[in-house]
Specification:
The protein is an alpha/beta fold. The chain has a domain at 823-873. It is built from eleven helices and 52 strands. The protein has a 28-stranded mixed beta sheet. β25, α5 and β26 form a beta-alpha-beta unit. The termini are far apart. It is a single-pass type I membrane protein. Residues 249-431 form the Disease resistance R13L4/SHOC-2-like LRR domain.
Length: 875
């Protein structure tokens, strides 16, 4: 059966070949047993949409069939060219009789052979007739095979030396895009092999990768690719005998990127003098970059990025006159880069030294010999002056000099020199002054100038702008009017001093998906025409002075993920249609003047992960059916709510009142990565009981219902909300006992039940004890509570007093009035003692404006004194 699977892959690969015509020799007919083998193959094909096998009939010479080519002398089938220009594949199963084609030398020549001019080819790439999970080359007679392409299969097993026992002429081997793992067979180290590709292998599920202990015998090898294959081992050992076994070395391309290689770059690497491309990126290689890299006189491409290389970049790299691209970003390199590093780099087009501790010390007057198209120096020190030598790089299309320590104005030549730049990032510096008025004449599609000290107005924008980030500056004046930038996708202008209204001309940016205007001085009502931005995913207008009712245009944003209208002057009711925003993940409406009930349809937001309606005037009860907020009760929402695009929203931070104070979540992407969920309805006028359905939100992390008018009891099964880290029910009218299940919340790090009408014994447990130690005011204002850790014990007499306090009998009322009179007498005396101070205006104001925590301390002292005084006077 395994043989059938292999043969299936053989013939499926033939779909890529060009349609061959009738090419058999007129002097020889095909052999009967080979014709039968081909007919058996056709019999197993159940679908042939392109009609590739229509000419295959028993009554005709098989050498005249479409795609079949025979020897002029022997009539044996040498080639099968059954490729079709269409992507439709043959379907079916293949007879093992095809093994009778023992003299087959050519199967589908649709390969890029790097001008090797090879003629004997076996192409198994992209088989889909059947899935072959083993490579069964030993069953075939392949002594003449020179090219083998078995890429993009589902091979899922260790590599085996037996595959190659009879392949003596192989020069091209492609086993990429499989799941092969284990040791590369030594049998593979055949002297004729020139091309080897084992990229995209390894089995991540089994955590097993490709292992190469010694590749030094591949002396004829010109191209070696083992990229993204979980390749592990010491790179020094891998080629330890290369210099002695292969002289001169023929290797032109070495790509071992995105693996798990360790060790240091050996000095002998400089002996690979024929290298044109070297890629060792994204490994764990340490140590310095050896000076021997200067021997790569033919090198055009060098990528050592994302490793742990240390020390300085050797000056010898400037000897590489043919180098066109160099990537050294994300390492631990330090030292200084001078013009000597580029003195002979006449061919250099791309350079990326970002995120190293390098200092770029190049004079502004120096004119480099190269004409760069891409230059990235993020986090390299280039300041304090703006690097003037860049003005000669008139071919630049991508420039990143963010976090470069620049303390300067944008130079006058900025617009002219960078007129062809499409991507420009100068964020996180200390740029001062204004933006150039000629900005609109530039070719920019992405402009990032955030976190600087820019001032003045925003000029007309470039017509091709797609991504604009001017946030965290001191820009003032109105928003830029809509220009011809129809491709605009992201505008981040938050944390500036922009004023005025959002103009209707701004609505011309119809393609916007991200709009962040937070932390400015904008006012008035947002124009309804903003609803034309139907691709909107992120809209943030918080901390302005915007007014009007809840913007009706938001209902057009059916793909919106983030809405932030907090800290404005919006009024009116929340609309019932808010439930149609099915993909909404974050809703922030705090610190406005919204009134009315929370619409029941808000529970239709199954993807909602963060809801903050705090500090409004919302009334009514908390909606039932809270279990419809699926994202707050299921940990994995991938199938229902997509998150890939959300993770790119690192364009602002998100803060909320958590654990009694305002805290910063960090970037929005962190919320989704960590499945943070939060409901904050504090400081409103909500009434009624806390619905029992709230316990269904078992992945809710933060719940804040404080400063409302809730009555009833704490839900008895609140202990089932196992993910809770912060619970604040303070300053309500909740009564009854504290549920014992509260001590089951093992992740709870903040609890506040203060200023309610709770009674009875406090549940025991080390969890609640530690919470009390961190917040000793968590029970304050509940005079009916008793037991550890409070001072008053839950004695039988005390319990009966509590019952009478809640009771309703005449006797109970009489005793209540006794205590009330006693308390009033005590309070009257106390006020008389402090009357002089309190009636002085400045002392009275200071007393009533104490901070909450200090006020709580005063309250505890007074209440304790009153309680002890009452107890002493009891008969």
């Amino acid at each position: 059966m395994s043989v059938l699977l292999l043969i299936t892959c053989f013939f499926l690969s033939l779909l890529r070949a060009a349609a061959g015509g009738n090419s058999a020799s007129a002097s020889a007919s095909c052999l009967p047993h080979e014709r039968d083998a081909l007919l058996a193959f056709k019999h197993g094909v159940t679908s042939d949409p392109a009609g590739l096998l229509d000419s295959w009939r028993r009554d005709e010479d098989c050498c005249r069939w479409r795609g079949v080519r025979c020897s002029n002398q022997t009539g044996r089938v040498h080639e099968l060219r059954l490729g079709s220009s269409s992507s439709t594949a043959l379907v079916g199963q293949i007879s093992p009789s095809v093994l009778a084609l023992q003299h087959l030398e050519h199967l589908d020549q649709h390969l890029s052979l790097n001008n090797m001019n090879l003629t004997t080819v076996l192409n198994l790439s992209g088989c889909s007739l059947a899935t072959a999970n083993q490579l069964l080359l030993p069953r075939l007679n392949l002594t003449n095979l020179e090219v083998l392409d078995a890429s993009s299969h589902s091979f899922d097993h260790p590599m085996s030396a037996s595959w190659f026992w009879n392949i003596t002429s192989l020069q091209y081997l492609d086993l990429s895009s499989n799941r092969l793992y284990g040791q590369i067979p030594h049998k593979l180290m055949m002297t004729s092999l020139q091309f080897l590709d084992l990229s995209s292998n390894g089995d991540g599920d089994k955590n097993m990768g490709v292992m190469a202990t010694d590749l030094s015998n591949l002396c004829s090898l010109k191209v070696l690719k083992i990229r993204w294959a979980l390749l592990y081992g010491d790179i020094t050992e891998m080629f330890k005998n290369l210099s002695s076994n292969c002289s001169p070395n023929q290797l032109k391309e070495l790509d071992l990127g995105v693996n798990q290689l360790t060790g240091t770059l050996p000095k002998w690497i400089g002996q690979l003098t024929s290298l044109v491309k070297l890629d060792l990126s994204s490994n764990n290689i340490t140590g310095p970059l050896p000076a021997s890299v200067g021997r790569f006189t033919d090198l055009k491409f060098l990528d050592l990025s994302d490793n742990h290389l240390t020390r300085n970049v050797p000056h010898e790299i400037g000897l590489l006159t043919g180098l066109t691209k160099i990537y050294l970003y994300n390492n631990d390199l330090d030292g200084m880069i001078t013009k000597e590093h580029f003195a002979n780099a006449r061919s250099l087009q791309v350079i990326d030294l970002s995120y190293n501790a390098l200092t770029i010390d190049i004079s502004s007057e120096w004119q480099p010999p190269s004409k760069l198209s891409i230059a990235h120096f993020a986090a390299c020190q280039m300041g304090p002056h703006f690097p003037g030598w860049l003005q000669w790089q008139i071919r630049l299309t991508d420039l990143d000099i963010s976090s470069a320590g620049i303390v300067d104005k944008l130079p006058q030549w900025f617009s002219d020199a960078f007129s062809n730049v499409k991507y420009l990032n100068i964020s996180n510096n200390q740029l001062i002054g204004g933006l150039p008025a000629s900005l609109s004449f530039m070719s920019l599609s992405e402009l990032y100038l955030s976190s600087n000290q820019l001032t003045g107005k925003i000029p007309a924008l470039p017509p091709n702008i797609s991504f604009l980030d001017l946030s965290n500056n001191s820009l003032s004046g109105p928003l830029p009017s809509g220009s011809g930038a129809m491709n605009a996708m992201e505008f981040s202008l938050f944390s500036n001093k922009l004023s005025g209204q959002i103009p209707e001309s701004f609505c011309k940016y119809q393609g916007l998906a991200v709009l962040n205007l937070s932390n400015n001085f904008l006012e008035g009502e947002p124009p309804p025409c903003l609803g034309v931005m139907e691709d909107m995913e992120y809209i943030a207008l918080s901390n302005n002075s915007l007014s009007g009712e809840f913007p009706s245009f938001l209902q057009n944003f059916t793909t919106v993920l983030f809405i932030d209208l907090a800290k404005n002057k919006f009024t009116g009711r929340l609309p019932a249609w808010i439930g149609i925003l099915r993909l909404l993940r974050i809703l922030r409406l705090s610190h406005n003047k919204f009134v009315g009930d929370i619409p029941m349809n808000i529970t239709n937001l199954a993807c909602l992960q963060y809801m903050d309606l705090s500090n409004n005037e919302i009334s009514g009860s908390l909606p039932s059916y809270l279990s419809n907020l699926t994202a707050m009760r299921k940990t994995n929402m991938t199938g229902m709510c997509y998150v890939d695009d959300v993770k790119n929203f690192d364009i602002t931070s998100l803060s909320a009142v958590l654990k009694g104070q305002e805290r910063n979540y960090g970037s929005i992407s962190r919320i989704f990565d960590t499945n943070m969920t939060s409901i904050d309805l504090s400081s409103n006028n909500l009434t009624g009981e806390i619905p029992e359905e709230i316990i269904a939100l078992n992945v809710l992390v933060y719940l804040n219902l404080s400063r409302n008018h809730f009555i009833g009891v704490v839900p008895s099964k609140i202990g089932e909300m196992q993910s809770l880290e912060s619970l604040d029910l303070s300053r309500n009218k909740i009564s009854g006992e504290i549920p014992a299940t509260l001590s089951n919340l093992t992740f709870l790090s903040y609890l506040d039940l203060s200023y309610n009408n709770l009674t009875g014994r406090i549940p025991s447990g080390t969890q609640l004890d530690s919470l009390y130690a961190a917040n000793p005011f968590m029970y304050i204002g509940n005079i009916g509570l008793c037991g550890h850790p409070l001072q008053n014990n839950c004695s039988r007499d005390n319990a009966s007093k509590q019952g009478r306090h809640q009771g309703g009998t005449k006797e109970g009322h009489g005793i209540d009035f006794f205590y009330l009179g006693l308390g009033c007498g005590f309070i009257t005396g106390t006020w008389m003692a402090f009357g002089v101070l309190l009636f002085k205006r400045r002392w009275r104001i200071a007393f009533f404006q104490l901070p909450d925590k200090l006020y709580d301390k005063v309250y505890v002292l007074v209440a304790t004194w009153a309680r002890r005084t009452q107890t002493d006077r009891l008969p």
